[in-house]
């Protein structure tokens, strides 16, 4: 396995001819938090003109597809709702279509996840603030909801000790499903000094208390690609996955047999590619993108001559 | 390595003659939550009469030594404060004596830990409720305390998302120490159905967000035994560790070269000993107690003839 190739202007024709469908991660790729990465809306428009199908695959579980639509529009992108595959949607559709879910979900998640659950007519409880009250002797008597048949975890800024307790208690029953949107430990915050904890940190707390691992639906799990295949024609060898994280985006590409392009505007650096090449873990060693490019701004500029 | 021997009445003389010091874990060994395990106060008294030194080593970080004294007294034990080694005390003395700590600690912990920190004159912040307020754009501007030079994690029922964020942010600076009292994922609750999350679940959340591992001071780390050696004469080969958990109590015994006795009134079962014997992990295979006994009630009865 060799190091990723830089996607230069010389390699552009070969790259463009290699795909019909192009999957984009969003944060760190098309935008950084609320700032669009220059010229990426033009890139999406240009790809459509060229007959390519852009699709959007994000592990972020804080927004519904509708909320993502609003964000895309606000940042100047022309995107339709059915092109968006976010993990709030993924969790709801997994429960509805794969588990044929009846009963109620204990949901550690965001208002965006609630919106998707409502759209799919899934009963849930657990969202919003839930701090402890009283002593441990009181919690022992905490009322449990016998209708709970799944624990679902996404990003939740109101995560609390009591939520760990309830989630871990519900999944003691092995017939209760245990799913998570993603396992990202943290999110970068540009120049800001803070570490924004990801869903992965919440999931780890519950997994440790429960002694049981969640089924993680988001990237790099190929469920995202399976879902796309139900709605779009997707030929893996004619598809490129574009992302900023090796262990989610690029790994998804490998898991689903797609071509891969790493952009350097987000989490992973070229030095991380080198670390993967030298890793003792075979999964890391396999996780090398086919191409890398500094940013999609550069790709937009290259494509302007096409 | 063979299976643990049952500590029968026939083996009692050999057992008693083998030690001068006997370390007891507390919950699941001497009591279960707030119920004393029958005849254990008499056992401690009897051991003293026989010239043995009992000491008490617990990973529970919710109580100070003073608070433990009260609990021992309430349950009918005669124990002095300097015989108690709990992890609230361990964390404070580690900062004071090992780190020669200056500055302030960001403390995720209990009122018991606060009491020990005050006794050792360690400045701290972070305890009590701390839920999120506002949007992520606000947290980016969260004021950080430049005096923080350590993040210390113990059991905290007021654990929250914002505490993960602050802890992970402080330990981004590798010169900031990162210590935890213990790594127990959960605590049993007798017949009750709830899972009580342990410090380990809190630590996992922060470790995952930070991408950095805590130094865990409690059992099975032998720091507990090092601390005892500063205060008492302790000859490892003349010492028995009595506990209900293989991966903390019995592992501490192995790590510190002590004799070990497993009681079956708490977390680990005889089937867990069998699992360890068959484990592919060499640490598990090593972690087999010398003896086991159903409960300390039985040991008290055996000893009544001595």
From TrEMBL, chains A, B:
Annotated TM spans: none
Cofactor(s) recorded in Swiss-Prot or TrEMBL: Mg(2+)
Cellular-component GO terms for this entry: cytoplasm
Record note on cofactor: Divalent metal ions. Mg(2+) is the most effective.
Residues that coordinate or bind Mg(2+): 25, 27, 244
Binding positions for substrate per the UniProt entry: 187, 219
Gene3D superfamilies on file: HAD superfamily/HAD-like
One Pfam family hit: Hydrolase_6
Molecular functions (GO terms): metal ion binding; phosphatase activity
Keywords: Hydrolase, Magnesium, Metal-binding
Catalytic site positions: 25, 27
Record-stated family: Belongs to the HAD-like hydrolase superfamily.
Protein name: Putative phosphoglycolate phosphatase
